[in-house]
Specification:
The complex is a heterodimer of chains A (238) and B (293).
Chain A lengths: L1 H15 L6 E6 L2 E2 L3 E3 L5 E2 L1 H12 L3 E6 L5 H6 L5 E2 L7 H4 L3 E2 L9 E5 L10 E5 L3 H9 L2 E5 L2 H9 L5 E5 H10 L4 E7 L8 E2 L4 H16 L2 H9 L6
Chain B lengths: L12 H8 L3 H35 L4 H16 L2 H24 L8 E2 L2 E2 L14 H34 L2 H9 L4 H31 L11 H9 L15 H31 L5 H9 L1
Antiparallel strand pairs in B: 1-2
Helix pairs in contact in B: 2-3, 2-5, 2-8, 3-5, 4-5, 5-7, 6-7, 7-9, 8-9
The chains are: A alpha/beta (238), B mainly alpha (293).
Chain lengths: 238, 293
């Protein structure tokens, strides 16, 4: 059996040889519509799929999509399991210490609250947020009651079953959920947190960073980025 | 999949369900059952091999070998599985890449660790970043199997170590009286007879191994628990042709049934195996069998 494993591993190594080295592995979460999600065919889809494919085409790179848990998405980037994070990740100083970001591909947008009733007093309520997000950090900083969940889906489920009073997350994600569910609504209060969403790369990957930066700039310049943002309703436009 | 699935919003009831259950995304879920079963059936013999090696080492007459065996058993048994899984897989991956890096890129002058980055040359990556996704998955799975093998191997080693000691001393004495060497006595007398004593412990391990498969998810293998959570989450009509509410309860119920059925099946097989191995043994079960016959 071990021989089988070793030969399988050897096969893996030889199969990879002689191929082009410039395949860029794009890491995403696949659970955060409209930014990124798995479609009915089981493929990565959404705003970032389209954006990423376009960026790769402009930079003449061959790209491959992989999904990874949100919680370990940064550790797996720095240990080299994939080459970029393109997963609706807001640019923050804290993350910038560990990885590098391209320029933002969506402008800074407010985060909003989703609840079952309009009169939730968020400062004295239980707020659900996804682990390791700017929203979770924000609630913790304010000293409010925070419950964290590994996936965005579970934060909304928590409000539904009464575990939390409201979810704090990106407005585009919550708006999509609120539009389809009559019982869920967005609160009027919004929070201005985060500095726009960018692609994350290893700090040592300067060349790739510049390539993607240039590709994002060219999409900004010809207006195709704004068109894509409007198509998927992920954020305000530039 | 079916021709009538073109516009699912017009369908309902079982017809809708038949379309829903045959989307590409659902097939990834079904495939993950296969993945779990394959990993399980590879892991079990690997763990048993580690266990056998560990047990032989632990009862060796050569002191250093004995220490290695005992240390292996004590170390793995003493550390929480999850710590082992998290640490070992990352460490093993980095160690392999580091070795390949030393071998393939001797002229590399930059440090391997730059801040929090772990950097080896592109040719040393395992698997190469240009390799198709399937090899990345095979590699991850192999690391997972190896880690499972080591962890469960230590428990198996302890079980086998005990089982080897449980074989009546008189059996070995008789073998010696017939002029067998210690090696012959070990392979011909001890090993065939020890299984009946090892089986209760090993069957426990097998059951625990089945139930431990969701840990695969931690190791980056997209297993049935991952897909149950992913597919069970409420689906928004904007992003799917098959919108539904929060169905995680049903998906996890399906997993529950799967695991129960699988462990029940294992129990039946293990029961038969016990009966078979008891045959002609000087154990209570074996003697009963003899009387009944």
């Amino acid at each position: 059996m071990k021989k089988l494993l070793i030969s399988a591993a050897a096969l893996a190594v030889t199969a990879g040889m002689g191929m082009a080295q410039d395949v860029v592995r794009m890491g995403t979460e696949g659970a955060y519509p409209p930014w990124n999600f798995i479609n009915d065919d089981g493929e990565v889809d959404g705003f970032e799929r389209e954006l990423g494919d376009e960026l790769c085409a402009r930079a003449e790179l061959e790209c491959e999509w992989v999904t990874n848990e949100w919680d370990s998405i940064i550790p797996n980037l720095v240990s080299g399991n994939y080459d970029t994070i393109i997963a609706g990740m807001s640019i923050t100083d804290e993350r910038d210490e560990v990885i590098d970001f391209t320029q933002a591909y969506t402008p800074p947008d407010p985060s909003s609250y989703l609840a079952l009733s309009m009169d939730v007093d968020v400062e004295n309520a239980v707020i659900a947020a996804q682990t390791n997000t700017i929203q979770a950090a924000f609630v913790a900083e304010q000293g409010w009651t925070l419950v964290e969940f590994p996936t965005p889906e579970e934060t909304i489920a928590a409000v539904r079953n009464g575990e939390a009073d409201a979810v704090l997350a990106d407005k585009s994600y919550l708006a999509a959920a609120a539009a389809e569910n009559d019982d869920l609504m967005l609160l009027e209060r919004e929070e201005q947190i985060g500095g726009g969403v960018g692609m994350g790369l290893r700090e040592s990957d300067d060349e790739l960073l510049e390539t993607f930066d240039a590709a994002i700039q060219s999409m900004k310049d010809d207006g195709s980025l704004n068109a894509l943002i409007e198509k998927w309703e992920v954020a305000s436009t530039f | 999949m079916f021709s009538y699935c073109e516009d699912p919003s017009t369908l309902d009831g079982l017809v809708w369900l038949s379309c829903y259950l045959t989307t590409g995304k659902q097939f990834l879920f079904y495939q993950s059952f296969g993945t779990v079963l394959i990993l399980l059936f590879i892991t079990a013999p690997v763990a048993l091999a580690f266990g056998f090696g560990g047990a032989i080492a632990a009862r060796s007459r050569i002191a250093p070998l004995r220490w290695v065996g005992k240390l292996y058993i004590a170390m793995v048994r003493g550390v929480p599985d999850i710590v082992y899984f998290m640490f070992f897989v990352i460490a093993l991956d980095q160690a392999l890449e580091w070795l390949r890096h030393k071998w393939k890129c001797p002229d590399w002058d930059q440090p391997i660790r730059q801040g929090s980055d772990f950097i080896v040359c592109a040719q040393a990556k395992l698997p190469l970043s240009a390799a198709p996704q399937v090899w990345h998955e095979v590699y991850n799975a192999s690391l997972a199997i190896f880690t499972f093998g080591i962890v469960f191997g230590a428990f198996a080693a302890n079980v086998l170590f005990g089982a080897m000691r449980a074989v009546p001393r008189a059996q070995i004495e008789t073998a010696e009286a017939y002029g067998m060497t210690p090696r012959q006595a070990f392979w011909r007398i001890l090993v065939p007879q020890m299984w009946i004593y090892a089986l209760p412990g090993l069957s426990n391990l097998w059951m625990i191994l089945i139930k431990a498969t969701p840990l695969l998810f931690l190791l980056g293998v997209e297993d049935i628990v991952y897909w149950a959570r992913e597919l069970g989450g409420s689906a928004n009509p904007r992003f799917t042709d098959y919108p539904h509410g929060d169905w995680r309860l049903w998906y996890f119920l399906a997993l529950l049934v799967f695991y129960l059925a699988f462990t029940r099946l294992s129990e039946i097989v293990l029961g038969r195996l016990t009966e078979r191995l008891s045959h002609g043994q000087a154990t209570l079960g074996g003697v009963k069998q003899g009387k009944a016959a």
